[in-house]
Amino acid sequence: MDSHFGLMNVWNQGDFVTRSVAVLLIGMSLASWIVILIKAVDIIRYKRLAKHSQDFWHSEDFATALNKLGKDDTNPFRALALEGREAAAHHRNTKAHLHDALDVSDWITRALRNTIDEFTARLQTGLAILASVGSTAPFIGLFGTVWGIYHALMSIGSAGQATIDKVAGPIGEALIMTALGLAVAIPAVLGYNALVRGNKFVLTKLNSFAHDLHAYFVTGARVQSGGEATVVALKKG
User: Fold this and answer.
1) How far apart are alpha carbons 144 and 124 in whole angstroms?
2) Is pLDDT above 60 for 161?
3) Where in the cell is it found (predicted)?
4) I need a labelling partner for 192 at 20 to 30 A (CA). Which of 38, 57, 80, 229 fits?
């Protein structure tokens, strides 16, 4: 490729606005890739935890089941189990509070839902960055192109020459900004969609686990997919 169309040439010949746009796009690209990599690692870990969460129900008592979820405080399945146990015990051991107007089912549902909502908020952290980058980067690149073309035409006009070889170089350099904007936006959009799908999978598993916990703490039975409750050999405690 001709050196006149290189990004370095755009940087060397560009003014403050052109360089600022280029730096902004590069910064947006770095931010989006950092978010994609960090969140992808988190989703892989949560999927592995979701798979292992089924071992929870193959235990003789609750303490053993809880140990199978590990000691990681960031494990959302462990957090749900602890929250459900504490909510059930709190409702059972207190008599003079306003929450006594709620039955144990509503109280445990509220506790589990709050835990899931907190985890959902943490899970979605960073997605706003990808959405912003994906929606704004093409327009920022287009602004850089328009400014570059304007700057190039002004330079050509002041030189008094408008031959094709004088026009093609500066215009081609300006168009690189549009390509850079698209190169930043496309990975951000694809990463956003992939992470949303991954988050949806994790939340589906978490809600299913919470549903089973709710049934267990309220009735002593885990609701199976067939709709019938099957008593699980877990001792509450």
Assistant:
1) 31
2) yes
3) Cell inner membrane; Membrane
4) 80
DSSP lists the bridge partners of residue 152 as: none
* Phi, psi of 202, deg, nearest 5: -65, -45
| 73, amino acid identity | D
Predicted structure pTM score: 0.78
Which two tokens mark 33? 């890739």
Q: What distance in Å separates the CA atoms of residue 73 and residue 232, rounded to the nearest whole number?
A: 25
- Other beta carbons within 10 Å of 179: 12
- CB-based burial of residue 131 (10 Å sphere; 0-12 exposed, 13-18 middle, 19+ buried)? middle
d(CA 193, CA 43): 13
**pLDDT tens string 111-143:** 899 999 999 999 999 999 999 999 999 999 999
pLDDT band at 9 (very low <50, low <70, confident <90, very high): low
